[in-house]
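TICKET #2291
ISSUE: user wants both folds in one file
ATTACHMENT 1:
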Amino acid sequence: MEGWRSPLLGISAEEATALLAVSAGGPLERIALGDALAQARLKVLAALPASGRDRTHAAAARFHIDTQAWFKPPELVPHLAELVDAVRQDRRLRITHRRRDGRTTTKTVDPLGLVAKAGVWYLVARAGGETRAHRASRITEAKLLAAGFTRPADFDLAAFWAEWTREFEASLDQLPVTVRLSATGLAALPEVLDDTTSAAHATPDPEPGWHRLTLHFDSPHAACRRLLGFGPDVEVLEPPDVRAEFAETARRTAARYS
């Protein structure tokens, strides 16, 4: 009928439970959407029949999603507010970004979206026809420009992020390092390297109680740093330069305590 509009209700108790359970504040609280999210949760509850309201609220309270990684405080993002404004207003940004090697670059970008992954914010932006993700904590300067931009009609942030993370992960850990681990070291793989799959590919070593496998790292230096966490339960076999650097690092470590 003319003028009739469907109320929010039409949402089932099960659907409301799912919405309330996954809508924890988390990263949204850091971009000034935490209050809006809390109000939205109240409105969803208020739209439910009184008979099912308490039951739905109690059911949703049995689930909690914590997006922050273990042992890591939230990263400081000094210019997060500017990034949020630029993304929401489709306005260009002038950013200075510090690369992993310490060098900085300054450029004008079209900010297409923000992604929070395990407590870390990334700015997805286009510049010079190329779309990339920038770790937001490494943006040392950000200036919101008056000029706007036209957002690509076919851009899908979730799809871009899935493809970008796949390519990023594939670009890392390109150095194969063959090691042998004691039974204790093999069991410690999830704790030391956050690796829950490599142990399945281990093969028996000629020395009883030891196992061989190949792990992958970004560089010889990264391999040594991370493998030191196994202490005497690891021996680097190949490549020779990693074995030599690991031995030298171990000698210097031992000398520190002599």
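ATTACHMENT 2:
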Amino acid sequence: MGSRLGELIDEYDVPGAQVAVLARGEIRDEAAGVLSARTRVEVTNDSVFKVGSITKIWTATLVQQLVDDGLLDLDSPVRRYVPGFTASLTARHLLTHTGGIDANHFFDTGRNDDAIERFVDAIAEEEHPVPPGTAFSYSNSGFVVLGRLVEVLRGRLFHDVLRERLVTPLGLRTVVTDADEAILHRAAVGHREDGSPVTEWAVAYGTAPSGSHFAMSARELLEFARLHLDDPKLAVLRETQVESVPDLGIGVVGWGLGWMLHRDGMVGHTGVSKGQKAFLRLAPDKGVAVAVLTNSVRSEPLAHRIFSELLHDEAPRTTV
């Protein structure tokens, strides 16, 4: 357990955290604190944290692979592949949150194999008053539509495609896409503002599939980030698509194809789940990435402190 990280989580009153740093081709990780304030089980480097909307970068990666394989045109109407949507809605709109689809649709289509299909069919039947391409509006539901595109064009369930094309090739062991009982003994429990544990590990399916439902360790999140730093085909996802976005309070100045664009050439994404927050930042020009996974909703100051110390040095450090 990293003593420095232990000092920081005490300072910022965060029950538990993992930090991983990718620099000079090597990943180093540290863990500190407890998975749950109730059980006091210690966080290890193999513990599993929910990454919330960082899930969207995984979905964007699968979508770009469809483009590279000639199966998808980002600027063709979505209804060419998935019937029912307005003619002007494209995958590019969905990746950049300019599709005009409501942020969240709170209806449950179950947890069976057809959950994403049924969810997307229901969205297609609703009115979307904002024309695609006219305004930025962050949308979890739009990324579920992208997940359905992956299913239709690959002919497989989304989570099966995820494992076949990313999890298995990258050799990842901790990634889970559902509340797998086999890993709950090492999964972080979220904590509210008052520090009390959130008892539910799983989130309601709703807008979660392909939008916000993955969990993993910080080290394995950075193995995924390494793919984005090493594969030139994925650099297109970091190119600016939306130059001006509303102030989200997290220092975002623009949007790529899935990626949040930060100042100084940084890209990243933030994820919020029940009682947990996750943070990912990449400095592509330096070949550096940092992941901070926490089981507290009040951990943003901790993450900003770590990013400030690790990403803004001339020679980035490899440990907290």
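RESOLUTION: both attachments delivered.
EXTRA DETAIL ON ATTACHMENT 2: Residues 179-183, 200-207 have pLDDT under 50 and may be disordered.
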